[in-house]
């Protein structure tokens, strides 16, 4: 476990050292069989939202931190292709669960979609999206995306998953954003804005390709962000609203930390715990365990401005 200290950014507290991950619960794996997105409610105590990977129906799920008290919510007017991520976006004092149907392993989708569902204390068995936003990428590019998160600036950030499975090789990923005005104007179709590249293979040269691709993302209330890979999590205080420096110039302990996780294959879902220096992650692969575990990592040493 790393113990190097971060340079304190101007906007937030940071974590300088992370504890070892601990298992805190089990998901009901018959219903949440391929956990691909996880988000903890910012306002409702002990509530986690989940989505499944491709092959599931138009649903999202609610549990507590132990994976219990399951509630299944059907989303009307939702025809999922490959659901890969979940975030909570805040606009006009209202929180929205955002389901990201953004997977495109074969790079054949002309557009992907975000479904905005108003967060409520309780839900009926069926709900309608408040808004559906179709997303395209610049110049007609087709991107496979499993990492997406709302930023406190109001924008939504997208990190692409860049890999060649047959060659067992990872490539630098692209970063896009959806500006907050797109939701305010209730735009039905948006071209994501390209904001830069992140050479994750250069940042993690000692990892194999599975540790060099982006499978999940979350951003806390201060703008610090967690990027999940199949091997570990990358925690960074670098400001996403500004141009990121080249990965070759990043300093371990100053610009980022690499956090060791548990030996969960195919981990694809991660979420900060609001108001705490901690996060939760899960895996969509249960065959090895015959269970779908939830794990938590807490900050061991926090630095504040």
Structural class: mainly beta
Poorly predicted runs are: 1-12
Overall pLDDT level: 92
Overall strand count: 25
Share of helical residues: under 10%
Number of helices: 2
Verbal overview:
By secondary structure, the chain is an all-beta fold. 3% of the residues lie in helices and 44% in strands. The chain contains 2 helices and 25 strands. The chain has helices at 180-184, 200-203, and strands at residues 14-18, 22-27, 35-40, 48-52, 59-63, 71-75, 85-91, 94-101, 112-118, 126-127, 131-136, 145-150, 156-160, 163-164, 169-170, 173-178, 189-191, 193-198, 216-219, 225-228, 232-236, 256-260, 267-272, 278-283, 292-303. Strands 1, 2, 23, 24 and 25 form a 5-stranded antiparallel β-sheet that branches. A 5-stranded mixed β-sheet has the order 3-4-5-6-10, with no helix packed on it. The two termini are 24 Å apart.
């Amino acid at each position: 476990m790393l113990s190097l200290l971060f340079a304190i950014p101007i906007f937030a507290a940071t974590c300088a050292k992370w504890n070892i991950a601990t298992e805190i619960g089990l998901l009901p794996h018959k219903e949440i069989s391929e956990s691909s997105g996880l988000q903890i409610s910012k306002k409702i105590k002990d509530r986690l939202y989940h989505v499944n990977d491709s092959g599931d129906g138009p649903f999202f799920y609610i549990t507590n931190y132990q994976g219990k008290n399951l509630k299944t919510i059907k989303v009307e007017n939702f025809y999922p292709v490959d659901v890969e991520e979940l975030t909570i976006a805040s606009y006009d004092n209202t929180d929205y669960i955002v389901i990201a149907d953004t997977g495109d392993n074969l790079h054949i989708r002309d557009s992907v979609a975000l479904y905005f569902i108003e967060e409520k204390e309780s839900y009926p068995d069926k709900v309608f999206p408040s808004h559906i936003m179709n997303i395209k990428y610049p110049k007609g590019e087709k991107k496979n995306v499993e990492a997406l998160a709302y930023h406190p600036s109001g924008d939504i950030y997208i990190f692409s998953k860049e890999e060649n499975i047959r060659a067992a090789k990872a490539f630098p990923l692209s970063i896009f954003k959806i500006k907050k005005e797109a939701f305010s104007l209730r735009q039905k179709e948006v071209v994501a804005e390209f904001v830069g590249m992140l050479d994750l293979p250069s940042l993690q040269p000692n990892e194999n390709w599975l540790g060099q691709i982006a499978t999940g993302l979350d951003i806390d209330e201060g703008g610090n962000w967690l990027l999940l890979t199949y091997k570990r999590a990358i925690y960074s205080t670098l400001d996403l609203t500004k141009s990121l420096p080249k990965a070759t110039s990043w300093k371990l302990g100053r610009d980022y930390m690499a956090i060791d996780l548990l030996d969960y294959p195919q981990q694809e879902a991660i979420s900060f715990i609001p108001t705490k220096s901690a996060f939760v992650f899960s895996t969509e692969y249960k065959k090895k365990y015959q269970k779908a575990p939830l794990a938590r990592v807490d900050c061991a040493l926090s630095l504040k401005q």
